[in-house]
Fold this sequence. Notes:
Shape: globular
Order of helices and strands: HHEEEEEEEEEEEHEE
Strand content: 25-35%
Radius of gyration: 22 Å
Distance between the termini: 74 Å
Number of strands: 13
Helix content: 10-25%
Structural class: alpha+beta
Number of helices: 3
Largest sheet: 8 strands, antiparallel
Amino acid sequence: MKNNQMEKEMLRCLLGSLFLSVFTVCTANAQKINELTQAEVNDGWQLLFDGKTTNGWHSFNRTEVLSPWKVKNGELNFKITKEGERGWDLVTDEEFENFDLRLEWKISKGGNSGVFFGVKEGAEYGWASSTGIEMQLLDNIEGADRHDPKHLAGAMYDLIDASQTSKPKPVGQWNESRILKKDGQVTFYLNGIVTANVYMGGCEWADLIAKSKWNGSDKYNGEDIGKFQKGKIALQDHFDEVSFRNIKIKKLEEK
Length: 255
């Protein structure tokens, strides 16, 4: 009887030690928020948000970052706190052409926002959507745009239907988005699911643009939408609260 008790105690200690070892390894290997692993650094990734400052960003057509954009608890947060306040779209100082962009986002209840690429600034342009192509960020349950399949979370906004692929996490939870652009071919991913895949050129692309809200009325309202292969990354001021973290990008070589 004593031998059985001793064996059980030894087994319990062994399992406890094994659990502790596995927990320690997993904890040690867990990637920290807003930091790159050494492997990522070696592979050419760069952070666009350091978790502490808005360095590398500015509000659209301005030199500074306006007050609704703040860094809190390692998150890049947009929130309007008083009537008439605007933060305008937040854009990178640097331009990118071929890249793999990844980020995490969480939206407020009923919220709407977006991530753009190919953005150009200038007095002739009103906001990021004057030139940039958008990945929509949305509360699919209560967001006002939820009734349009081309406006769902992860959709290439107003261009490609995402009704079968848009599967965002509930409000308040972090979603993972990815935009892969290489020599004009663009693929959107939301939580690992492809939500758009298109070549920015040729008849198909021209047809998508022609059927969208950007019909070339003027430069301020989209005459130059999607015309720039190289441009800035932007995060949208759509009045609703939204947060971002783990924003990183890898430049890809051209053909």
